[in-house]
Structure formats: C-alpha cells, structure tokens
Amino acid sequence: ARVVAQTAKISHREHFPMLVYSDALCKDFTFSLKFKIESGLVSQMAGICFRYVDPENYYVIRASAKDATLRFYKYFQGLRGDPFGPEVKIPVGEWVDLKVQAKGANFQAWLNGEKAFQAPVEDYAFDKGLVGIWTKSDSITHFHDLRLDYTPLITMGQRLVNMAADRYPDFNEISLYTIEETDGFPVNIASSQSEKLGLKGGKEESDAIANKNTYRARGKNRITTVTLPLEDRNGEPIAALKVVYKGFRGESSATSRIKALKVAQYIQSNLGVANLSDK
Q: Is 0.90 surpassed by the pTM of this model?
C-alpha cells in the first residue's frame, strides 16, 4: 500500500518534521491513522499534531518506541510544555493504530483501540487549527490509512448569510462582497449560492461600499437584483450586500429597496464584533 513517509535522517534533537492538511481548518475532529516506526538512532517517534497554527504553536500526541511512552504536549510560542501520558510499549516494524479526538478544549487518544488517558486532556491555548502528522529528528516512520472526520468552520459572513437565507427563503441569492486589500476590487466572501464564492464584483459593489449607494436591476421574468451597503454598528459600510429575487409585476424601486433593507438590517443586527472573514 502507498504510505506517507519520513525518511530524512536528520539527527538534530529539536527537529520536528510535520505534514499538515491545509484545507481543513477545524475545531472538533477525529483523526485516525496507522503508523509504522522503522528505525532511528536519536528518536523513534510518530504522532498527530492538531490545532496547528504555525510551527511554534500547536498540540501533539506522539508515540515513542525508544522511550515506550505515549505523550501529549503543547508548543506555545516555540516553547514546549510539560509532556504527560502513559508508558506503553510501541513496537518497531509493526503497524500501530493511533486516533486523536478533539471536542472543544478536551482531547483524547486511542492506541490500538485502547484509550490513552483516563480522563480527557484539557487545554484552552488553541481553539482551532490544522491537523497533520508529526515525527522527530531521524525517526524513519511510515503513515497509512489517514482518515479525518470534522465539521468545517465557516466565516462569520457565511454564517450570517446562512441565517438570512433561512429567514428569507424567497430570495434566490444573498451575497456579501468586501474590498480585497491586494487589488482593491470587491470579492464575494459569503453567498447562499456556493458557486458565487470568490467571484469578483463590479462598480455597483464598489460604490455601495465606498459611497453607500444602492442599485436595482430588473431582468427577465422579473428577476430583481438589489445591491446596497452593509453597515457596522457605527453606520460605516463594511461590505456590499447583493440580493436576488423574483419580483411582482409593477414592483417599484422603493419596494425592492425595502425588501433588500430587511435582509441588511437582519444581518446588521447579528453582526457582533467579529470580522466578516473570521472563522
């Protein structure tokens, strides 16, 4: 079977090769795998890193064949916390099952189906992050059958759009656009239609954010599009809100604006203090 392998024989004791899955920012998860430690003069280790923020901030649960231990510890701002966990024989040259589960601030691990800690480990340093595989120094280790089960985190903007879409099911589309810092164009950061995410807006979205102007367009079959500013609690525009719906015959611009304003006011009332792009 194909494996992911750590093969570099780097003997530095503070060298920690990691491979993180960058597409899965998560909070609660179950991550299981099989590992086989082949060799290592300095270390013979395999582990799972999780709530990974960067190389200096993450949790890890690792097994050591040399020390016959399973340990949990935390790297915070590059400093390792005190490791703890049971003494358990870790074979060399044999496949071993390792599973880690995170629920909020509580973590548990299983080694070959046996629970590692009598009570879940509790720590509040990192509330979300990436997951991955971890080794140390010159550990020659193979990983196989990696399985990750998690609930994807969504941005605050997407959460607000989802709430608005549930409240106003007659709207065909509800989208939020913010100005990109890189090129100054508005981009869709949240939408009730997932295929619209990441698409760039135009002058209407830009002007709605910059000057608080509202735009209405009427298309075939009375499909109506309204673009207007979304404001924070201080009345400052932070995004452009676009709503699309099927209007009625003879519907006025004022009526369209009132419909769109209801959605805007609902979203604004639930904004809180989080940034729209925060997960």
A: no
Helical ranges in 168-236 per DSSP H = 203-211
Task: Mention every residue, 6+ apart, whose C-beta is less than 8 A from residue 104.
Answer: 27, 28
SS3 letters across 240-264: EEEEEEECCCCCCHHHHHHHHHHHH
- To the nearest 10°, report the CA torsion of 256, 258, 264, 269: -160
Q: What is the pLDDT of residues 183-219, one digit of tens each?
A: 788 999 999 999 999 999 999 999 999 999 999 999 9
Check whether 1 has a pLDDT greater than 80: no
User: Phi and psi dihedrals of 20, rounded to 5?
Assistant: -105, 150
The whole-number average pLDDT for the span 248-260 is: 95
Rounded CA-CA distance 259/171 in Å is 10
The tokens for 9 are: 């024989």
Alpha helices in the chain (DSSP H): 156-167, 203-211, 253-269
